[in-house]
């Protein structure tokens, strides 16, 4: 899979979860994907930044959704602003 194909799959996954984040006043942006496609860096935004359950959202929501679309991804990291 090319880098562009992987990025498209990750964006598709983020589009799938974005409405749930936006309904709580938050959002998410893709920052980067490492060269081997195993680590994805995102930034939680809006209400998600200070939310006490954002790590749970990141692991059980965002990471699982991304892995469903792009199984080679091993880890999703939230980069604080």
Short description:
With 81 residues, this protein is α+β, with helices and mostly antiparallel strands.
Which whole number gives the mean pLDDT? 91
Evaluate the radius of gyration: 12 Å
Q: What count of helical segments does DSSP give?
A: 2
Instruction: Report helical residue fraction.
Output: 40-55%
Can you tell me the overall shape? Answer: globular
How does this model look, in words?
There is one protein chain. This protein has 81 residues and is α+β, with helices and mostly antiparallel strands. Helix 2 (54-69) links the parallel strand 2 and strand 3. It has a three-stranded mixed sheet. The chain contains two helices and three strands; from the N terminus they run αββαβ. It is 46% helix and 25% strand. The termini are far apart. It is globular, with a radius of gyration of 12 Å.
Please name the defining characteristics of this protein.
81 residues, alpha+beta, 2 helices, 25% strand, globular
Reconstruct the topology from this structure.
Elements: H1 3-23, E1 26-33, E2 39-46, H2 54-69, E3 75-78
Parallel strand pairs: 2-3
Antiparallel strand pairs: 1-2
Helix pairs in contact: 1-2
């Amino acid at each position: 899979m090319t880098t562009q194909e992987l990025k498209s799959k990750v964006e598709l996954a983020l589009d799938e979860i974005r409405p749930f984040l936006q309904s709580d006043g938050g959002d998410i942006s893709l920052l980067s994907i490492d060269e081997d496609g195993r680590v994805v860096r995102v930034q939680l935004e809006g209400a998600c930044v200070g939310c006490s359950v954002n790590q749970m959202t990141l692991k059980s929501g965002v990471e699982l959704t991304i892995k469903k679309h792009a199984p080679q991804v091993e880890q999703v990291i939230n980069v604080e602003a």
